[in-house]
Amino acid sequence: MEDHISSTVGGITRRSVARTAVAILAVAAGLGLAGAQAAYPDKTFQYVVQSGVGGGSDILARTLAKILHDEKLVPVNMLVENRPGGSGAIAYNFIAGQKANPYVLGGVGVSFFTTPLLGKMTVSYKDFTPLAAIARSPYILAVRADSPIKSVEDIKKHPGLTTGTVGAVSDPALLATMTSQQLGTEIRVVPYDGEGEVLAAMLGGHIDLVYGNPNEILEQVKAGVLRPLAVSSPERMLSLPNVPTFKEQGYDIVHTQLRGIVMPKGVPPEAIAYWEGILKKVAEGDAWKTQYIQRFNEEPIFLDSVEFGKQMDVTSARYEKLMKELKLIK
Q: Which CDD domains match (predicted)?
């Protein structure tokens, strides 16, 4: 009787209690495993833009956030926040300061490389984690339709040509330097306050050449107002299939503005892999092609974290070389 009393309480045996305990532990363990698998992402992402509303970086961020939401590619929201100022320093310092935080993202612009080189930012591109590049902006070298310059080779016959750029350090300035070196001539760079002023100066006959992104000058090219001479991409542009690259014409000039996404340094490898997968889906999806690539005349591309990181090294080295030649840095 004592044995029976000691092994049963209210009809529940020690064996059944043990079984119940094991079952509870198993469920708990299962919940813990599921929780670990589903833990990321579980809160809103913050995408910090280094420029104001309406600029190229802002357009990319807001288009990306919209597609992620509409296509239900991520289970949480993405909040786009503009932090302009300091030639990108305000935004990039903030992002880098969120070390190991996998919920903060940002985009790569020219200032991502040039502002640190000028010593105006406490961090450099090495203080960020590259996730992927999902588009690129080639540059079109063009002249007015009535220009005597019919080809890149003709530039050699007209020494003392000028081009326009926004600020002293920019992609057009870099391309002008590369063209001058490749052709053995000199193209003088005239700074303006905005892309609109550069185009107006070009159309008004105040400068001779223009290096423009497709979204800046493609309409004028297609309207016959500007004559394209070359494109700076590795291959011909889809929107200008009859315009050769610099490389095709025998000049070692390849430079595009990669539209890429970064996170702070030290984020978990799982976060990098997660965003590589998501951004690959975005880059290959119809929504991205229609709402961004085609709408803004960008070129489609996808580079994973490793390849994008390599291109960041190359791009920074190019800007550093240009800035030394311009005596902006030592």
A: PBP2_Bug_TTT
228 dihedral zone (left: phi>0; alpha: psi -120 to 50; beta): beta
Closest CA relative to residue 189, chosen from 168, 220, 216: 168
Neighbours of 220 (CB within 10 A): 21
Question: 28-53: per-residue pLDDT in tens?
Answer: 333 333 343 458 999 999 999 998 88
d(CA 94, CA 272): 19
Tell me whether strands 140-144 and 226-231 are parallel, antiparallel or unpaired: antiparallel
Rounded-to-integer distance, Cα 162 and Cα 155, Å: 11
Q: Which residues of 113-199 form beta strands (DSSP E)?
A: 128-137, 140-144, 161-166, 187-192
pTM for this model (two decimals): 0.79
Q: What is the pLDDT of residues 266-303, one digit of tens each?
A: 999 999 999 999 999 999 999 999 999 999 889 999 99
- How many residues make up the chain in this entry? 330
Helix (H, G, I), strand (E, B) or coil at 124: coil
Could you list the beta-strand ranges (E) of 77-232.
78-82, 104-107, 128-137, 140-144, 161-166, 187-192, 210-212, 226-231
Directed axis angle between helix 269-284 and helix 56-70, to 10°?
90
b/e code 258-278 from CB counts within 10 Å (16+ = b): bbbbbbbbebeeebbebbbeb
